[in-house]
Design a protein that fits this description.
The relative contact order is 0.12. This protein is an alpha+beta fold. The protein has a five-stranded antiparallel beta sheet with strand order 3-7-4-5-6. It has a two-stranded antiparallel ribbon with strand order 1-2. The protein contains four helices and seven strands. The model has no long low-confidence stretch (mean pLDDT about 75).
C-alpha cells in the first residue's frame, strides 16, 4: 500500500523518526490535505493515527479493559450457584431484553434463577426463555474508610 509514492514502510520509518542521512524529505508531501487515508494507513500498520502524526511515542494503543463475554444459557456454560447475572432473552421485535437475577440452582431445576427485581416473579423469569447470560461484578458495600 502506498500513497503519493510513499510506501507504508517508509511512512512507518518516518513515524519512528528514522531517516537516512542522504535521504531527501519533502515535508509538503505530508500536509494534512494529502493524508486523507491516514486512518487506513494506521489500520494497515496496526498503529494509531496519533503515532503516524507524531502525537505519541506509543506505536500501538494502550490496552483497555476487555468487554465481558456473553455465555449461552446451557448446561455446559451454566453460571455458578449464587452468581449475580444479567439474563438476555429475545423480544418479539427481533431484539433483546434483559433482567438481573441470581443463580439459585442448576440447569435442571424448575426455578434456577431468582430475580433481583421485587416486581418480577420466579415464574416470569422462567417464562422469558432466556438464552444467554453475563456475569455481573457485584458491588461490595460496607463502611467507608
Amino acid at each position: 500500500m502506498s500513497g503519493d509514492g510513499h510506501t507504508i514502510g517508509l511512512l512507518r520509518r518516518y513515524a519512528r523518526g528514522e531517516f537516512k542521512p542522504d535521504e531527501r524529505i519533502y515535508f509538503y508531501d505530508f500536509e494534512l490535505e494529502k493524508c486523507s487515508t491516514i486512518g487506513k494507513c494506521a489500520k494497515v500498520l496496526h498503529c494509531t493515527t496519533d503515532y503516524l502524526l507524531g502525537l505519541t511515542e506509543e506505536l500501538t494503543p494502550t490496552k483497555t479493559a476487555s468487554s465481558p463475554e456473553w455465555s449461552p444459557l446451557d448446561a455446559e456454560h451454566w453460571p455458578e450457584e449464587g452468581a449475580l447475572v444479567v439474563l438476555s432473552y429475545p423480544t418479539g421485535l427481533g431484539g433483546s431484553a434483559y433482567l438481573t437475577a441470581r443463580c439459585g440452582g442448576g440447569v435442571s431445576d424448575q426455578y434456577p434463577f431468582v430475580s433481583t427485581n421485587a416486581g418480577i416473579s420466579v415464574q416470569e423469569v422462567v417464562d422469558c426463555k432466556c438464552d444467554s447470560w453475563l456475569l455481573i461484578s457485584e458491588r461490595q458495600r460496607g463502611e467507608s474508610k
